[in-house]
Structure formats: structure tokens, C-alpha cells
Design brief:
The chain has 244 residues and is α/β, with parallel strands linked by helices. It is 34% helix and 27% strand. It has 2 domains: 3-69, Hypothetical PUA domain-like, domain 1 (Ribosomal Protein L25, Chain P, Beta Barrel); 76-243, Alpha/beta knot, CATH 3.40.1280. The radius of gyration is 20 Å and the shape is elongated. 33% of the residues are buried.
Length: 244
Amino acid sequence: MMRYYIAPDRWSADGMCLEGEEAHHLLHVLRGKVGDQITVMDGAGREAFTEVVEANRKEARIQVIQQTQSPPPPVEITLIQALPREQRMDLILQKATEFGIRRIVPVVSDNAVVRIKPGEDAGKLERWNKIALSAAKQSGSLWLPEIQPVSGLLDYLTAMPRYDVWLTCSLEADTLPLKQVIESAQANHPKSIAFLIGPEGDLSTREYAAARNAGARMVSLGPRVLRSETAALYVLGVLHYEFG
């Protein structure tokens, strides 16, 4: 059954309304009509089995039949991702949503190939949120990730929140294997984990220094040099297996 999205601030157990792209897909792509039953979610753990009770060309009013609330993932995982090329970022967003990540922080780093021009931020963020929503619908995830506006990496490291486990994936020599660091962290039952993935050109010397000053543990992903998107998905898979 197709799943549709209604924002948390427009959610009501008494009845809701599908509008915009969601209504267009139901009414004009799938030719939905009164009496059809659909599933809706709010991206914050709520899901409802509903019936279409009224429809016109622009919106569909639905009545809730049954509603459920799912708890958030037991460990809140944050990906701090240096911007790669557009298609690679799309892949990271899609797969991170499928893994149930809680937060994605896109950052511009010294060696990044991609730069955000003034005025592009809002359009990028809107597009990324649409990619995440589509991935959540497809995968059955009831929790949408929070995708933060693009910031400079050094700016973020200066003011970043506190995490129980804070990792930076590094190509430098003074690293510990990811497996070893995770095994050590498990003993403390962390509730929040953040990890930083650098750009295709790697982090700069000053960015590595800033990450260390912010308390990051430098971890290795093995002897091979992985692409930025491969490294992100590798760590997400490991963390999902160990803490999901």
C-alpha cells in the first residue's frame, strides 16, 4: 500500500487533508477516489491507516481508522558529511534514511570539490528533504532524518553539540580500527553517535586538528582508500548493525 506524508504540525487523529504533491500523486497518478484506503506517516514515528472520505482536484480529506506510534531508534546517529558531488550526496541521503539515521549535517570543507553558491542553500535543502522522504516511504521508515542547512566544517566543529561517541574517519597514521573503537564504546551504552566523513580530497591538516580539539576519536576503515559515499555507507551499516 502506498504511503503518504503529512507533517507533524498538520496531523490530527480526527481527520487530515492531503495537499500539494502528496494529493496530486494520489488523485492524478494513482486515480485515487473516495473509499480508497491509504497509509500516512508524519516522519516522527506516527503512522495511520486511513480512508479517503472527500476529494477534489487539489486535495483529499482522510479519516483515521487506526493510528500507531513507533519509538525513535535506540541510538541517535548523526552523519557530518563533507559535500561530495551531487549524485553521490543524493545516494548518501537516500541510504542514510533507509538506515534510520537521525541527523545529517552537510558541511563545506577545505578540499571539497562542491561549493554552495549564495542563494542555493534553500533549494538544496528542499531537494534533499524530498530525497529523504521518498527513501523513507520506500523503506518503511517512520522517522525522517533532520537535514541541517549547509555550514562550514570548522564553524560546525567550533559549536557542535556533545555526543556520547564522536568519530572522524581518517586516512592519517594515528588511527584506531573502527571495530576496536565501537567495541570500546558499547560498554558505555551510548545514546548518541556522530561521525565525520571527509570529502574526496580528504580533510585538511587544520580540519583534522579542529576535529581532534573537538574531542573526536580518529578511526580507520581499513587499508583501502574508500570514496566519500562508500565510507559513509560503510560506517552507517556498521553502526546500524551494532546499535540499531
